[in-house]
Amino acid sequence: MAVTDERVPSLISSHVDVIYRVYGAKKMGTVSGAPGNASLKRLLKGRGSIGGVREVHAVKDVSFVAYHGESIGIVGRNGSGKSTLLRALAGLIPPTNGEIYTAGTPALLGVNAVLMRELSGERNVMIGGQALGLTPKQVREKMDDIVSFAGVEDYIDLPMKAYSSGMAARLRFAISTAAVPDILMIDEALATGDAEFQARSRERVAEIREAAGTVFLVSHSDSTVRAMCDRALWLDKGRLVMDGPANEVCDAYQAARSKTSPKKAGAKKPAPKAPATKTPAGASAPAAEKSAATKPAPADKPASAENPSPAENPAPAEKPAPDAGTTSAEDAPR
């Protein structure tokens, strides 16, 4: 008897491809060095960007099914298509090929989520809450909870341009989770904030999961994915490499990353030098004579006539002592 899966799907991704075009991306040579300089060619060609069009295949044939109550992490290297896939699942980017089905309205929370810098934090809460489908009355009822969760009670009347990046990230998360969304998508937003805020964020994500919501989390932190997700997707160069339990996927991803990461070659240790022997000041001459005596003399090496070495030249013969009755020219009185 076949076992039926009683879980209810919340999102279906069927053979999704995302291809986008980049204009002005025609290759004109290397940036510097041979065979040419791209900047110089740009100047010679004329002003403006080079009129080339390049297609980037960011997501390639990705298929999976997400269910209500699941928390799914998406891992992969930079440029593997994680954020692009998340934006396509949220409906912000139309897929080039394939279909995406959602049971409910997805809410994307990212580090680049737009907050109006000129408006106050309170006005941004009102606008963001209504964008999630809440009425103005419901937003006012939740205002205190949102402000308290973000920890910006003393700054809620200031314009957003006066907020730090961490304060703005906390307020974005608090706004996005004010109304329990059917599908919450978090793109690196939990990486900004202290440990206390991250703990509160995990509690809020757990509440959303208990309310039968689905959570997608893109993060470069394996520990965050292991702690907050029960399932993980591993993307590499736009393709879905592995789909399974979070711990197993993270282990496989870590193993693959450790194999492909370049290893630094160990520096060669210099050959040990012979320790220099220190000669006492009083015994310098005898020690030098002793060391010179221990060195083997070169075998029958003729002395150079042009640059005779002092060591090779024989000592001058001693003059014979003068006889007792003989007076040398030097000793003669002048």
UniProtKB/TrEMBL annotation:
Ribonucleoprotein recorded as keyword: no
Pfam families per UniProt: ABC_tran (PF00005)
PANTHER family (UniProt xref): TEICHOIC ACIDS EXPORT ATP-BINDING PROTEIN TAGH
Name of protein: Teichoic acid transport system ATP-binding protein
Annotated region described as Disordered, given as residue ranges: 257-334
Organism field: Georgenia satyanarayanai
A GO CC term assigned to this protein in UniProt: membrane
Recorded family membership: Belongs to the ABC transporter superfamily.
Domain spans labelled ABC transporter: 38-262
Gene Ontology MF, one: ATP binding
